[in-house]
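Lab manual, section 2.4: Encoding a predicted structure.

Procedure: take the sequence of the chain (393 residues), apply the prediction step described in section 2.3, and record the output as structure tokens. A sample record is shown.
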Amino acid sequence: MKDLTVFSLKEIQKKLNSINVKINLEHKETFPKERYRLLSFYQYKKRFVDISPQGYFSFSKLATSLVDFSFVRSLVASSYKRCGGPCFDPASFFVLYLCRYLDKFKSQKSFVSCLHDKDKGRCYRTYAGISDNRIPCEADFSHFKKQIKPEKFDEIFHILVEIVKRVGLITGKILSYDGTLFPTYANYKGCNYACEECKSIPLKDNFLKSLRYRIINSLNHPSKIILGKERCSFAICPKDDLPASVKKRPTFRTLSFSLVPQEEEQKEEKPSELAHVLGLEKRLSEEGLYLKLLSSSISRIDLTGDEPLVYVSCPRVPADLEAKIGYKRANHNPNKKVAVFGYQSMITTNIELEIGLELPVGCVSSPANELDRLLFYFRKRKTYRKTWIFALF
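Recorded output:
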């Protein structure tokens, strides 16, 4: 039976004392802003970790008591400039992100709410070196992530995994891979192939002419006009890279309108913009009708050419363009598939059989419609290159 004394809290603290010093010596780049221009300042401090007889303890307190995160300041120094206003210490932000993950807060909003609480958030403010009168909000967290970019997060996680590796808790001899689907916050609007170009699709040159002719034809047969009835105009998806499985090109609504009786207020104060674009204001006024625009996907109209060119934004474009539809088996019925609009995550876990320990050491995310085997191949290549990414987010 393996002696686990070397993995006791006391022994790990001894190892980390020298490891923390070495890590900080390896990262000496000076942060461009002076300390007095920082709204917070993280400092490593050892704290007594109370472990109950049942084995309960604070994960965030344990992590911040063992690891010195001062290296974060040097690692992200290139993402900041000497000029500009004051900012929060990046080491403080990373400690807060770590605490949120370790203490399993469901959302950034709930964590920030706890952070601002006088009593509940005191421990997190203490760990991160944040004063009670300068507490970051959700926008500050978003700005920090945008400031340092995902590549810097990967570098920080790489160092964290290296620290755990030096302690001896991971060897990389046995790795397991598990793929899982998770939803995005954006709503699925009906298209799994949307891209950035779908926000500005040029319609046919004769789109406005055809619409004008359609309305004039209705005006020429007033007995067939149903006042207030919604009329729609559609366009065919022009994408050239649709998969072969899509046999019929999808269509989408470009605009909808109706013909209603014209009132004096509309005639004088609210002229129809659509009627103006089509040049039908006079004809509609003669018929005592008003062209009411109900909905429109038109993003812009180019008037520089001989004929106006209309661009539309497809209403089926989701806010998150990278997320896709993937399928998984239902929890209570393995024979049934459930659609998930979001991403697929391949998590790499290091397994140490001798000490009975499993730790996540890597994570690769991709759109939900990608196959597990592709992610597995990509994950193996990254593991062989020893580019570890600690799976915290």
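Check your result against the sample. Residues 138-167 form the longest helix (30 residues).
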